[in-house]
Amino acid sequence: MKDQNTQSRRRFLKFIACGAGSLLSPRFINAATSPIITKTIPSSNEKIPAIGLGSSRTFNVGNDSQALDNVAEVMRHFFIAGGSLIDSSPMYGSSQPAIGYGLNKLGKNSDVFAADKVWTWNTDLGSGQMEKSRKYWNIDAFDLMQVHNLVEWEEHLELLKKMKKRGEIRYIGITTSHGRQHDELAEIMKTQPLDFVQFSYNIIDREVEEKLLPLAREHGIATIINRPFQRGDLIDELEDKPLPSWAAQIGCENWSQFLLKFVVSHPDVTCTIPATSQVAHIKENMLACYGKLPDQAMRTRMIEYVEKII
Amino acid sequence: MGELASYHLSDLILFSQSTYFRLFELYNQAVWPVHLLAISFACLIVYAFWKKPAWSGRSIAAILVVSWSWVAVAFLYQRFYQIHVVANVYATGFIVQALLMLWYGVLKNRLIDFSKSKMRIKAGSVLLILSLCVYPLIAVISGRSWMQFEMFALAPDPTALVTVAVFMFFKLPVILYVIPVLWLVISAVTLSAM
């Protein structure tokens, strides 16, 4: 995560030149003249773009060279649009090698904010797994290492603390998804020195607003939000429904931007990581990281509208 | 391992439908012309049931042993495992099934006791023909590239289906059915969760 703010406008204009021309509406041009939306990591005050890139499913393409090139293309547009944080896990099959392929092809190995996870029930294997992941990514070090889905979190987290102390990683965190294990996660957030926590949140599944997001604010923990589209189900449900005309007030031209702006506009959300394998979608998603964000009144209106039509 | 119970099935299917089917396309391109051997295996099985020569039981068992072993290594371990973290477990299951059939059908030569039930023979015949002839057409029928076809002896689903069909012709211990039927359930659930 280097010089994000100073370069964001240049990157964004390059983004337009690289094929987003069809999106050149007045709202889009307004967005282009605004800086990329960033959020602050409380433990360091470092700023990162509010929209990152997930890799579950979408980047798990094996050694299919055609699909790997497509992954690299998605990543290229992500970086051009000012994106930085990419998240993966050993659980995601071949996603890590695919990210490494993209980074190598784009020469972005040192620019990415690399977020990965340790995911093994055999805690003796954690260190080796993280090193294997690092080699897949072909980076010097991960920026963020998280314990995936609370798996054997006590022992893994101790190892991560030591790695952070030795300067091998910059941030440590812990993840869950699908609304699982929130009580246990809350306890961990209260007692452990976490930099990041990751869980699911979207316009329909808002349980974390009650407990986890306030807790993150209270303890100075950055939040990464997975499944902002309910793994695509929300987009599938909404794509045939009319986008409200007032969505234009916050620069939304489609449902993905509507849903992403809802998530990142929560004051305690640091970043969300939608996953996609389509260049058109990464362009749409990244546009949500520019322009206005909804205020609380607008967020309420967004919830009411979606709950009415879904 | 308690956390494992908190996963939904769809949480463990971390690849897309298009990636899964594309895997067959790349696999078919890579292993050609092994398909010709697979077709000859299929023809040999049909001939063995039609003419019932003395060597039929042992030959059919040997074909199934080779098919299950090939699918375990060439598809499940070398290819499917790239995108699915538990495919190595599936590959192990296929090897276990191959060993069971090697022991029971080839070494013990127990695929000789034909079922007397006409219903079973009819059902087995229909399933055999569907698995050998119709299953490879599913890719085209469903609008995908024909290169994504799945055929007996090369792909897991038709191999398991043909195996169950073959078993229906004989009186066999239930244990031989366990892995093929379990695989068919796993595959059906996987396809529905993708």
What features would you highlight for this structure?
A: 310 residues, alpha/beta, TIM Barrel, seven-stranded parallel β-sheet, two-stranded antiparallel sheet, 9 strands, 12% strand, globular, B: 194 residues, mainly alpha
Task: Walk me through what this model shows.
The complex is a heterodimer of chains A (310) and B (194). Chain A has 310 residues and is α/β, with parallel strands linked by helices. Helices cover 42% and strands 12% of the residues of chain A. Chain A has a single domain (4-309), classed as Alpha-Beta Barrel (TIM Barrel), CATH 3.20.20.100. Chain A contains twelve helices and nine strands. In chain A, helix 3 packs parallel to helix 11 (279-287) and helix 4 packs parallel to helix 5. Chain B has nine helices and no strands. In chain B, helix 4 (56-83) runs antiparallel to helix 8 (156-167) and helix 8 (156-167) packs antiparallel against helix 9. Chain B has one domain (14-193). The longest helix of chain B has 28 residues, at 56-83. The model of chain B has no long low-confidence stretch (mean pLDDT 93). With 194 residues, chain B is mainly alpha-helical. Classes of the chains: A alpha/beta (310), B mainly alpha (194). The interface between A and B is medium-sized, with 25 and 20 residues.
Q: What letter string, H or E per element, gives the SSE order of chain A?
A: HHEEHEHEHEHEHEHEHHEHH
| Count of domains of chain B | 1
- Major sheet of chain A: order of its strands? 3-4-5-6-7-8-9
Number of helices of chain B: 9
CATH topology tier name of chain A: TIM Barrel
